[in-house]
Structures are given as structure tokens and as C-alpha cells.
Amino acid sequence: MNRAAALTATLLCAASITAQADSWTGKDKAQHFEGGAITGAVGTLVFKDANKGFALGTAVGLLKEVYDVAHRDKHTPSAKDFAVTVFGAYLGSRVAGLVVTPNRVTYARQF
After folding, report:
1. Lower CB density within 10 Å: C or N end of the chain?
2. Nearest Cα to 81, choosing from 59, 61, 102, 53?
3. Domain range holding 60?
4. In a 3-state reduction of DSSP, which class is residue 20?
5. Domain for residue 19, yes or no?
């Protein structure tokens, strides 16, 4: 799946999640960003493909919000949480290509 299709699917999923009136800032959003970034980076390193890493981070974020919908008594689903997770997954998947060595920083890109 190309990036445009993945992003479009992500936005459609985010729009379909029932959102509560919550803030774009705060500890919760930072945790969603960090979780997305870590998942995206690890996925990229495991699959050796940034698009697959991004897809993994997005899928985990979507599953978390679906879980929140199913457990509304204890959790609050949020499109903002999902969007922040996706943003983290995107950045994490892209940064994972950086390889830091003792004397240099290089970026590996596969075509």
C-alpha cells in the first residue's frame, strides 16, 4: 500500500472513531505519541521497511482505540489519541533508518 493510501485510510479510521472533547496536549497525548513512535521504529527495524513500520504503528493505535470503544465503562475512545499515535508512528518509522555509529551518523534508504 502506498503512503497516500495508508494516510487516507488512517484519516478515515480516525474520523470514524467517536471522539470525546479532549485536549491535544497533556501526558496522555505524549504517551500515545511515544507509543506510536516506538512501535513504528521497531516495526521498521524488524521488517526493514519504513512503510511496514508505519503500518504497524498505525494498526496498534487503531486497535487501542477499538479496545477503548469496546470498554467504554473504563476507557475513553479518542480520535485525537489515534491521530497523535499515527503521527508518532510516522516519525518513528522514518527516524528508524538512522544508524548511529561511534564516528558518524548515516541514513540508510532502500529503493
Report:
1. C
2. 61
3. 3-14+24-107
4. coil
5. no
